[in-house]
Amino acid sequence: MDWPGLQRLGLVGLGLKPADFWALTPVELWLMAGLEQGGKAMDRRGLDALMALHPDSDRGEMHDGSE
Questions:
Q1: Rounded distance, CA 50 to CA 42, Å?
Q2: Rounded to an integer, what distance in angstroms lies between the CA atom of residue 61 and that of residue 36?
């Protein structure tokens, strides 16, 4: 991990205060800097598949897995 480079990015490039910089994860810092390396955004097919795996209950209750 290039800590001096990340510090320069956060403190100089983004103008973060030191405490705010150290409170971030590297991923959060990359996202703030526009350097995210994630996959593409979810499309409708992906959303439909996710909804099929985790449907809403008929009563609008949230499930916490304790049932």
A1: 10
A2: 34
